[in-house]
């Protein structure tokens, strides 16, 4: 039986700020080995035996970032279908979208394997063996969850109580005493958030247990805008109908209520990398228990984690700190408060601070841009365009732009003109002029953009034509 993996990629990973942000969330952060969580998830799915197609449910703005991560995974490339949510409505809606889609394409007997994009699994062989067992159970008409064999009492995870492959109950995150009791009993497992089921079985369960979720997701899918981007099949989910879909987790909506839920025990070196304390464990410790990435000097320091990207970080006479330094934001927290980074992130979002959404270097389907400096009425960017890529035909209401080519060749539409610029050449684009930037060469195009105007926000853009399907 062919299995269709469904990768669910949502959420901001707020506990991993400032590396994780809305526009480049937790699944995309670089791990110590140079990979990302989402690329590793795709690789695990693609290397399963009977996989022809992989479905991804993600945010519209993350489509091309996701596709780039899959291409860089080094895994066999499968047919890829994307269901693009206009905004998150929790896991029940995401799973409903994927199930409706797979049932329509492959029929109600098709087996889905739902995988969160932001989990780390060390032992892929153990994972593949567990999936094989789950598929056998699913073929008997059951909804299967994966219970992680607990390594320690953990208050940050929900638990599943199971016996002989049957789920007895789901338990919310316990206190330390309860967690210790659960682990000692050997009947409880960490709730992984991974599932396996036939499409028809899940549709029947949702029809009974959460009909409003299924109806909303089905209507939003049926009104989706479908298009192809390169070798990708894309469904842009209808905003209005999806907004009317209840936001609830799959656990609450289905798993805790259904009477045909099975559990496969899984011991595979699993982690959801839920905090900086978990990220720190991925880096070996020195003789003082310190773990660091980047250029650091530590003096009289014990048990600290330091992540530095662009500059030297020095620590003297401190212990048990988390220090995460990025080009535009610095986090300093005590290890015991790692979970509370989320509160700081939420405050930034409430204030509308750009550091909650964007990095100084932002990734786009055509390449990247880095904000070098900004002030009153000006912003300076370094723009890099991939070979053969081009930006949308666009205009701005509130700013003018001056482009200077640093390296490569730029093909530019500027008003009624189309021009080619080489290194050290430049052009000025007045406010309101239609313009487009393209790299016709085989090497990256790098230029400096100087913006000036009353408003320099990234939302001051009107697109007239775009090869990436952005409106």
Task: Write a structural description.
By secondary structure, the chain is an alpha/beta fold. The protein has three domains: 3-271, Spore Coat Polysaccharide Biosynthesis Protein SpsA, Chain A (Alpha-Beta Complex), CATH 3.90.550; 279-344, no CATH class; 361-465, Jelly Rolls. Strands 1, 2, 3, 4, 6, 7, 8, 9, 10, 11 and 12 form an eleven-stranded mixed β-sheet that branches. It has a six-stranded antiparallel β-sheet with strand order 20-21-22-29-24-27, with no helix packed on it. Strands 14-16-18-19 form a four-stranded mixed β-sheet. It is globular, with a radius of gyration of 24 Å. The two termini are 39 Å apart. The model has no long low-confidence stretch (mean pLDDT 94).
- Given as residue ranges, the uncertain stretches (5+ residues, pLDDT < 50) are none
| Secondary-structure class | alpha/beta
Number of extended strands = 30
Largest sheet: 11 strands, mixed
- Mean pLDDT, to the nearest integer, reads 94
Helix residue percentage: 10-25%
Figure out the total of helices. Answer: 11
The total number of structural domains is 3
Q: Report the radius of gyration as a whole number of Å.
A: 24 Å
Distance between the termini: 39 Å
Brief descriptors of the model:
single chain, 471 residues, alpha/beta, Spore Coat Polysaccharide Biosynthesis Protein SpsA, Chain A, Jelly Rolls, 3 domains, eleven-stranded mixed sheet, six-stranded antiparallel sheet, 30 strands, globular
């Amino acid at each position: 039986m062919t299995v269709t993996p469904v990768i669910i990629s949502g959420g901001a990973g707020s506990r991993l700020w400032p590396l994780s942000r809305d526009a480049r969330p937790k699944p995309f952060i670089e791990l110590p080995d140079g990979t990302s969580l989402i690329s590793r998830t795709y690789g695990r799915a693609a290397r399963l035996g009977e996989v022809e197609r992989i479905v991804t449910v993600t945010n519209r703005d993350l489509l091309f970032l996701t596709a780039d991560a899959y291409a860089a995974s080094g895994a066999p490339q499968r047919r890829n279908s994307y269901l693009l949510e206009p905004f998150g409505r929790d896991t029940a809606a995401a799973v409903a979208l994927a199930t409706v889609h797979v049932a329509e394409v492959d029929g109600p007997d098709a087996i889905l394997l739902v995988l969160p994009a932001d989990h780390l699994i060390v032992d892929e062989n153990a994972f593949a063996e567990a999936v094989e067992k789950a598929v056998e159970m699913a073929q008997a008409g059951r909804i299967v969850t994966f219970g992680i064999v607990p390594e320690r009492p953990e208050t940050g995870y929900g638990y599943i109580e199971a016996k002989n492959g049957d789920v007895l109950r789901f338990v919310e995150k316990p206190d330390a005493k309860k967690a210790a009791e659960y682990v000692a009993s050997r009947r409880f497992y960490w709730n992984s958030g991974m599932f396996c089921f036939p499409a028809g079985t899940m549709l029947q369960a949702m029809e009974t247990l959460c009909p409003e979720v299924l109806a909303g997701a089905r209507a939003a899918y049926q009104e989706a805008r479908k298009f192809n981007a390169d070798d990708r099949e894309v469904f842009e989910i209808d905003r209005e109908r999806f907004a009317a879909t209840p936001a609830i987790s799959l656990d609450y909506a289905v798993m805790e209520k259904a009477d045909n839920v099975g559990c496969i025990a899984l011991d595979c070196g699993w982690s959801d990398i839920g905090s900086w304390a978990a990220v720190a464990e991925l880096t070996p410790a020195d003789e003082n228990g310190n773990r660091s990435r980047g250029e650091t000097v530590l003096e009289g320091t014990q048990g600290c984690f330091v992540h530095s990207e662009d500059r030297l970080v020095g620590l003297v006479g401190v212990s048990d700190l988390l220090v995460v330094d990025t080009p535009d934001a610095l986090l300093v927290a005590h290890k015991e408060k790692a979970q509370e980074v989320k509160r700081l992130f939420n405050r930034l979002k409430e204030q509308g601070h750009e550091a909650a959404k964007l990095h100084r270097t932002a990734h786009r389907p055509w390449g990247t841009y880095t904000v070098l400096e900004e002030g009153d009425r000006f912003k300076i960017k370094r723009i890099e365009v991939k070979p053969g890529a081009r930006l949308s035909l666009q205009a701005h209401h509130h700013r003018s732009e001056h482009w200077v080519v640093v390296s490569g060749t730029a093909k530019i539409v500027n008003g009624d003109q189309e021009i080619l610029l080489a290194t050290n050449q430049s052009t000025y684009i007045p406010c309101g002029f239609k313009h487009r930037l393209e790299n016709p060469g085989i090497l990256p195009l790098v230029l400096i953009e100087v913006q000036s105007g009353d408003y320099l926000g990234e939302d001051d853009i009107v697109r007239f034509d775009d090869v990436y399907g952005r409106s």
